[in-house]
From TrEMBL:
Domain B5: 407-482
GO cellular component, one term: phenylalanine-tRNA ligase complex
Name of the featured protein: Phenylalanine--tRNA ligase beta subunit
Organism classification: Bacteria, Bacillati, Bacillota, Bacilli, Lactobacillales
One protein family per Pfam: B5
Highest taxon of the lineage: Bacteria
Species of origin: Lactococcus taiwanensis
PANTHER family linked to this entry: PHENYLALANINE--TRNA LIGASE BETA SUBUNIT, PHENYLALANYL-TRNA SYNTHETASE BETA CHAIN AND LEUCINE-RICH REPEAT-CONTAINING PROTEIN 47
Documented EC number(s): 6.1.1.20
Amino acid sequence: MLVSYKWLKELVPELTASSAELEQKMSTSGIEVEGVTSPMEGLSKLVVGEILSSEDIPETHLHITQVNVGADEPLQIVCGAPNVRVGMKAIVALVGARIADNYKIKKGKIRGVESLGMLCALDEIGIDEKINPMKHEEGIFEMPADAKVGDSIFPYLDMDDEIIELSITPNRADALSMHGAAWEVGAIYGLPVKLEEKSLTESSVNAADKVSVKVDTDKVPTYKIRLIKGVKIAKSPQWLQNRLMNAGVKPINNVVDVTNYVLMAFGQPLHSFDFDQFGSDEIVVRQAKTDEKITTLDHIERELTPEDIVITANGTPVALGGVMGGADSEITDETTTVALESALFDGTSIRKTSQKFALRSEASSRFEKGVNQGTVREALDFAAAMIVELAGGEVLSGVVESNDYQPALPKVSITLSRVNGALGTDLSLETVEKIFVQLGFGVQVDGENFICEIPSRRWDISIEADLVEEVARIYGYDNLPSTLPVSQNAGELTAMQKFRRKVRSELEAAGLDEVIGYSLVTPEKATEFVGELETTTLMMPMTEDRQTLRATMIPGLLDIVNYNQNRKNADVALYEIGNIFWPNPEDIRPLEIPHLAFALSGHLVDKTYRSKAVPVDFYATKGIVENLLAAYEEVKFIPSANQPGMHPGRTAMVEINGRQAGFVGQIHPATAKKYDIAPTYVATLNLQVMQEEMPAQTVFHDIPKVQAVERDIALLIDATISHAEVVSVIESSKVKTLQKVELFDIYQGEKLPEGKKSMAYRLTFQPVENSMTDEQIASAVNKITKNLVNQLAAEIR
């Protein structure tokens, strides 16, 4: 909502606060101010000039003009506008002036003719095309005839105004009008509000004899029409055009501009029809019929459905109720009789229609959020009187309406002790009563009880808590006492929060950076790495890319890897801790499962003058997982060739104490190509399983007093046997002194039998008290090798 400071001061005459002070005060009182701007900002040396003479340059569209700008001598200015004429007053940018886009005017020659300035159109001084009443090709802007030569143009065009942009939340739609903003400012500063009034004179002809109204839907509480005959369509006076442009509305003509002016002033949408184009004396408001069509004012034909509200004449839609009028009945230069509409439409219905057709108008926006139901007739009468002032004609007697609808004014009660108890204040009865009076509420005081009659313009107030909020914001949030919460117990982290912090620290110690991805993804990405799974999808997502709750975090990480690598950041190490969403067999709501996922791509070590680059591989990725799970009793990595989206030969499932916790491996090359990323390795782990299986405490072991002993063994085994199986057999031999098993060599080639491979292990024995004898070492090694031979058919080399 754009609020003109000049207009606001007319409505609150005693207002002395500057726009900057007003910005701060309103922002701390419940209505956020986005900022304050001025149309003249960045412009300079623009004055009123009068064209004394105009001479055409042969064989061009240019004119040599002599322009009086109040100086001793007229200025010679070359101009190509088609509407230049002698006696015309125009906008003159002097030499050194700044116009739109910070363009500086300099002396120059055009076709060899010296030009000492520029005659300007509105767009050339920064008036946006959306609100500019003139097209550029129409020529320069003509200033009012009473504009004084040499004066600055800014006061004449109200460009010296200050525009306050309000960010209106849905609960404060009452401020979507100048009257609403004025009441708000008046309440904040305790100042009286003076609203503009107009006297309406009606003719002796009865409007009900010319037209009738019938409402055939429960979505329209009231519908009212006034008829104005003998109007003359023309441009609006400059003050009205200025006021509309400063409010962000494009001037059209005197009738349409009045409806827009009343919309901005009252917040009540109006619509003007060319009554002679109706072809009927009966207006019917109803729900649209299936396949019914209308061509709206933007000259687009739209196919309607029964959920749309239409205004019809002779059975044909002439307007899309509350959204936009029809092209067949719009006001044109030939219009002489105006049918002026003021109504209430159901906000939900209007929202659905405007959303369906992508038609967001000032009118639909207000019907969606709510309008003052008490001023529907007042706004209509004001507009009718104003049209007669600006366009002539006469208003036919009476309002033709579906009913004489008047909203019931609610009464809300509250006690002084309740106000003070809720705010922690010690306000007096008089102070609270004064605040309610400032707000324009009707107040009755019975002891310490306030009975407030709420005006129709504040339809957001209906319960006791609303009154508490009003007292708080008018009294001033910064004036409320501040106290610390009283509690016997200090807050602490939950077990999962503590666990997440521990995991986060370990990952960052490994060199990974944390990212936060989107929980909503496409349906395809939601289950890309988990296979077929029932997902949860939003009924009305903001975008198609964000509609389904993720069942895995890996696609989001791959998108981030792609984003980085496309920007020449090839080496990526990222992790995310968050929730994934799996179907809940016991509830419609999904299960939220805390998960960890990380991705590595590029190089572990960059190339230097003395060493080669070391690329990321499976073992580096697996090593990070092993470090995370180092404290767990039993961790297994089981090869998997069936994990969706993963490389079948470089992927392993992770088990913790027999429970599946996730997987680690390389993204399938086809998947990597789809995401347009380099070879990437990922891992994902279920934090809930990790937390539940984590040892309750760390067991201390004495530091050995004697030296460790190492022995190497080499095995010839089947190529299908994994390293994990060999280690499992070695550890199951239950040699108490065995502390470490390390694979240091593996070979598979032409010198070995087909289907065989050689693996060499280093076994580390570490007794606690006494050194091991040769016999004890040999016995331990024999026990291990015997199990390897028996269980894996290994050949000891």
